[in-house]
Amino acid sequence: MTGTLVLAGTPIGDVQDAPPRLAEELAGADVVAAEDTRRLRRLTQALGVTPKGRVVSYFEGNESARTPELVEELVGGARVLLVTDAGMPSVSDPGYRLVAAAVERDVRVTAVPGPSAVLTALAVSGLPVDRFCFEGFLPRKAGERLARLKEVAEERRTLVYFEAPHRLDDTLAAMAEVFGDGRRAAVCRELTKTYEEVRRGPLGELAAWAAEGVRGEITVVVEGAPARGPEEIGPEELVRRVRVREEAGERRKEAIAAVAAEAGVPKRDVFDAVVAAKHAGA
């Protein structure tokens, strides 16, 4: 019989948010794999729990090397508990490699649901939550960051990002440039912690506010692109959308087809607009 891999959500701030099952799993697991063993120690002390099993580190630096070791433990029948510093393992945190490797070996994978900065930020943002997509952390380099944002410039769903505080001003400025400085957003800082703050407003205003300096754990929620009817989309806008997709790496043929589909117009109209724009710039 193979063992079980348990992914456990940990508090993103207030330790009282820890699910009751987390304490049970910490106490009973054969192996506890933690992103930071020092933080794990503080968590177990706060919960009044002493792990009976072996505690090992499992973080970005040793994830590739330690995964095979943990998989062998699982195949041998062990119950392995995976916890990260905050929130759910695998969500912009270590875990995906281990889950994929466990699934490949037919090991049972389950989870202890817990706090999530993504869902918490969505819930308090005041922005639509019926449809959303999580984009994680943006690239650090300015050019790569702009390219990634252009990929979702016409995304209708609400967007959720994680960001480091010292890069927040640059990120919000880039979002204002690509999405428009009037696009609504919410910057959620230190969620569930003592100095929790949710700053809502247009991207332009939020970028100016962040330029003064912001501290803490940051989650950014951005309103999706507004719906536009075919009658609102002129040739210049069609050309702009094609260029955005081309700059993101799409071939022109695919970009034209995608823009035509989302705009509700014939592909020939988009093609003609692109050709006309090319000739006008010649």
UniProtKB/TrEMBL annotation:
Look up the EC number in the record and give it.
Answer: 2.1.1.198
Going by the entry's taxonomy, the superkingdom of the source organism is recorded as: Bacteria
Q: Where in the cell is it found?
A: Cytoplasm
Q: Which keywords fit this entry according to its UniProt record?
A: Cytoplasm, Methyltransferase, rRNA processing, S-adenosyl-L-methionine, Transferase
GO molecular function terms noted in the UniProt entry: methyltransferase activity
User: What InterPro entries does this protein map onto?
Assistant: 4pyrrol_Mease, 4pyrrol_Methylase_sf, 4pyrrole_Mease_sub1, 4pyrrole_Mease_sub2, rRNA_ssu_MeTfrase_I
Q: What class of enzyme is it?
A: transferase
Q: Which SUPFAM superfamilies match?
A: Tetrapyrrole methylase
Example GO BP:
methylation
The UniProt entry lists the main location of this chain as cytoplasm
Q: Which reaction does it catalyse?
A: cytidine(1402) in 16S rRNA + S-adenosyl-L-methionine = 2'-O-methylcytidine(1402) in 16S rRNA + S-adenosyl-L-homocysteine + H(+)
Query: Key word DNA-binding present in the record?
Result: no
List where this protein forms a coiled coil: none
- Domain (Tetrapyrrole methylase): give its ranges: 4-207
The role this protein plays is:
Catalyzes the 2'-O-methylation of the ribose of cytidine 1402 (C1402) in 16S rRNA.
Family stated for the protein in its record: Belongs to the methyltransferase superfamily. RsmI family.
HAMAP family from the UniProt entry: 16SrRNA_methyltr_I
Protein name (database record): Ribosomal RNA small subunit methyltransferase I
Q: Which organism is it from?
A: Streptomyces viridiviolaceus
